[in-house]
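Possible regression after last week's pipeline update?

I re-ran a chain I had predicted before the update to compare outputs. Posting the input and the new output here so someone can diff against the archived version. Not blocking, just want to make sure nothing changed silently.
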Amino acid sequence: LKHLARYAASGLIVVTAASSAWADVFVSSEKDNAIMVLQNDGTFIKNIPTCKRPRHMAWANAGTQIMVACGDNDQIGVVDVTAGKQVDALPTAESPEIFALSPDKKTAYVSIEEGSQMVAYDIASKKPIFSVKTGAEPEGVLATPDGKLVYVTSEVTNSVHIVDVATRKQVGMVKVGKRPRRFALTPDGSELWVSNELSASVSIIDTANRSVKHTVEFEIPGMRKNDISPVGMLISQNGKTAWVALGRANHVAEVDVATHTVRRVILAGKRAWGVGLGGDGSRLYVVNGLSDDLTIVDAASGKAVKTVPAGRVPHSVITN
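New output (post-update):
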């Protein structure tokens, strides 16, 4: 065990606790109202009860606190990993699903379908700071590492909205594929990747000129294009590989970031929805929402090595 003393930049709580290095994988389960905690090899450790219908998660304080959007409680819960319980909550507008935290962890940017808006909340005071109108059904949210911009997808208008944090206004919009869902940003910040659920593709936006520079198309032999539905994705810390969950196609794609080409697709479970990469980059974790399990992929070989139960309707996975 490593003993860590960390200040919760959110201002909600201060944690001084022992962090267990073996508790590496955290999966939100919509129907179980819990976050499942696993070892990095998929061995079950415990369930942490949460608010109702937990979905997207983010580290509020690495290794100790997770913030999780709970759609049926209209809040973002704060979970103490060591204590194994929810310890606080940030009230939000109706049915939050996806959010992003500012680099200093003081602000939560939440996409809210009701009213077609992105709302920024001050985490310490638990009050809204400002809101920005978006296209209908906003979903994906990403805050840039410098804290200056927030990107928001609109599923209905097939667009990405660019919000300037300082002015609290939309400063740009980029058209992408059909029903854009989630984001991934390259480590150098030059490319913003956007998954297009109904186009079987990922749009790659040049962040400097705010235009689509390339589109990665996914194909699987013997499968119809409309059964390939990219949603969750991530880019490795070294910036060389992107992993894209292909939804109803029950596969995950490995993409070369430099060449924008698909290296291979790997069979996972039913409705591969979310992805997470282990801290050392050796294991990829794929959440399968319809088979209620988690596929563990050896990142080097591209082979699925194990599938383990992950609660009822698992939504997202994050790693320590």
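Follow-up from reviewer: compared with the archived run. The CA atoms of residues 241 and 256 lie 5 Å apart. Marking as no regression found.
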